[in-house]
Amino acid sequence: MAKSAIHSILILLFLIGSSFGFAQDEETIEFKTNLSKEKLGINERLRVEFTMNKDGDNFTPPDFEGFRVLMGPSQSIRSAYVNGVRSYSKTYSYTLAPAERGNFTIKQATIVIDGKTYKTTPVKVEVTAAVDKPSDQMTADDIADQSLHLVAEVSKVSPYLNEAMSVVYKLYVSPSINVSNFRPLDNPTYNNFWSQDIPVTSYNVKNGTYEGKSYRYVILKRVVLYPQKSGALEIEPLSLDVTLEVPTNRRDFFGQPIYTQTNKTVSAGKRTIQVKSLPTQGQPADFSGAVGSFRFNVSTSKKSLKASESLQAVVEVEGKGNLKLFQLPPLEMPGSLEVYEPEYNESVRTTLSGMQGKVSNNYTVVPSFKGKYPIPPISFSYFDPQDATYKTLTSREINIDVSGGPLESSGGNVSITSNNKRPVQATGSQFHFIKLAPNLKPIKETQFFGSLQFYLFFLSPLLLIPLAVIFGKRREAIAGDVAGNRIKRANKLARKFLYKAKKAMGEKDEFYIALERALHNYLKAKLKIETSEFSKEKIADLLLKKEVDPDTNNGFIGLLKNCEMARYSPFSRVQMQEDYDKAIEVISALDKQL
């Protein structure tokens, strides 16, 4: 009976888990309608796309009442890996022309996915009178203006003086265009700010929204700032020159849009930050500019020791704030203790939220006299921007017990100078006599003439003659091997350009970016032209004019295509190694032919 009940419970749990899994699968399926515009003139064109994130069958479009179908359906499939997660989309596209003015509805399209029928949501479209400049006649630059945005995201627009803030620069790219390259034109200098860059090790593509629309974006630059002046401070803009591919109204045989290449300069724009002054009311007298949230501690390595021994006294501040931008309070010690200049230590890391870690002054203290010496409490004050208040932390008193030495007040041989320098204790063994019996021994005389060293020195030129003859013949043989020397030079040149790609082997994005730059830099160095501005077709024509053989030409263009495909497709380390070896072979062949 018990076994039967357990069996029934397991079956019930399995069914619940299965139904939950199916429900999860259903929730992940999307089928929607995208319009190029929701309002258009009667002389404009409307592009309608039906997109799904899982392949399906029996697609049925709506009747497009009020429109004429100029082109479609064209089908496109996109599969990509973003941060290790695979994404898939399939799109049916139509180009429509309005038949009359008015308000219309793009009705539901249907498709069957995994045996279930899915429908899109109806979308309304308004057709107005003819416009002066139809948007379907926009140039590549017009499309780039609408599809590319550089944004500076500031964490705080009104920080306190010396309070941490961050700026993150993001490049937003519309899914309809492709970015092939970019380079900074003007980097901000951050005047009146203490700044530290947070390195961006790789450009990971992420999905996001900009002004309510779907975009892809990459983080280009991250920097942490601490304002050093109150009032209105300007953050200079970051400017980029971006090479991108923009779709045209023309389509290839398979219905895919034909792209054209253009360059666009984008800027993040100036940002003005209103920096608040630190309040003067309630500011402690010992305040040295610390802003943040901290802990304060004073400690010693020993509390009891003998005279002439040393101890370490540490004044330490730990927490989160402008750790590198204030002074630690000085350590106050009794005059009878000899204190050396402190050694400054810091263990600080900087993240987007600011600096965190600890800083300390390490004092070496040497007592000369027996006695008990108190290290009085010292205080450390800072401003907490979260509470907008000053806070003061005070250390505990530390007592040092010194034994095994003379008392400071015992007189004797103790001398104290008028300028409060440390006293000197004289002992009876400070001076020693120099030894007067050196016990020197005569050096044995040796004669160079007729010795073994003399004959080796005399005969060495004769022994070098056969080696010189052999070496000379070897050099002549190497110099006569013209083809071999040319191959060696070509291989050396190839490895020079591909050095960064080899270092990035295994990291797909970094490897193919470095490989693409190496190929373009090689042609730039060899042909004295900027080939990164050329399309693959232009590069192929250029190499053809330079009488490069078709195999080498096709190999070079194939490598460029692989560099582009790597942005959207998974590439294994084996494929990277093959492309690296192929690049060496192609550059070597090009160098011999060019």
From TrEMBL:
<keyword id="KW-0472">Membrane</keyword>
<keyword id="KW-0812">Transmembrane</keyword>
<feature type="signal peptide">
    <location>
        <begin position="1"/>
        <end position="23"/>
    </location>
</feature>
<dbReference type="InterPro" id="IPR025738">
    <property type="entry name" value="BatD"/>
</dbReference>
<dbReference type="Pfam" id="PF13584">
    <property type="entry name" value="BatD"/>
</dbReference>
<protein>
    <submittedName>
        <fullName>Protein BatD</fullName>
    </submittedName>
</protein>
<feature type="transmembrane region" description="Helical">
    <location>
        <begin position="452"/>
        <end position="471"/>
    </location>
</feature>
<keyword id="KW-0732">Signal</keyword>
<keyword id="KW-1133">Transmembrane helix</keyword>
